[in-house]
Each structure stands twice: as C-alpha cells, then as structure tokens.
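Collaborator request, handled under Task 6.
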Amino acid sequence: MATVLLATDGSEYARQAAERAIELAAERGATLHSICVVDQRRFDDPALSSAELATMYADDHALEFVGEVADMAEDRSVPIERTTRHGIPHEVILEYADEVDADVIVIGAHGDHDEHFSGVGRKVTELADRTVLVVEPDAD
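Structure tokens returned to the collaborator:
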C-alpha cells in the first residue's frame, strides 16, 4: 500500500501542506503518516525550569496539531498514523520516512523552524532519497 508522510510543525504553512497530503493520500488510496518533531535545539530536556515549561508547551502543540490532521484525514476517510518525536527535525523526518517506507514526503515551504535553522524543508529536499513535495503558501 502507498504511504504519504506529512512532516508538520503546526504552522499555517503546515496546515496547507496537511490539506495537500490528505488530498494526495486520498487520490492514491494511501495511508497518511503525520509526524511533528519537537526541535531539541530549541526545546531540550531541561530540569524544572522555564525551559521545561516551553518544552511541555511544544509537546502539547505538536500533539494538538497531529490530532487536527488526524481529524481532517478521518473526515476524508484517509487512514492515518500519527506521531510526535524529539530531535533535529530534518534528521527525524528522514529517519521516519525510512521507517514507514514513505513514497512521498509532504512538507510546507516555510514553517516555525525556517528562519531559525536554515529551513527544514530545504534540508529534507536536499537529503531525501524519495520524492519530496514542498507545498508553497496560497497566494491571497
């Protein structure tokens, strides 16, 4: 069975990518895998500090957004598997793509990490050994 991997960070760009990934999975009769990576460079595992609260917030945000994507997919009868992980986003995305044998990785052109770490989407595109669909923002 075909597999579509949505790499998301919960940004507005990621929402547009989610819509495209769901559409693509529906067209292909594929399972959608959705991953949200909490960037360990921004949210490390601190010990009882304000940084710990920020990490907990990032975890909650990731879980909330992959839940939203799951609801969107289920509305279209697209089977979905979802996960959140900690690490360096492009590395974790590529590892997960291998793990689920993704046919295509869908990612937003910009996201919450873009300005901070040279663009996760750009790194995934450069390093992936499979098709990467970068979803550009809608023109308003």
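The cover message to the collaborator said: "The first strand starts at residue 3 and ends at 8. The first helix runs from residue 12 to 28. Please let us know whether this matches your experimental observations."
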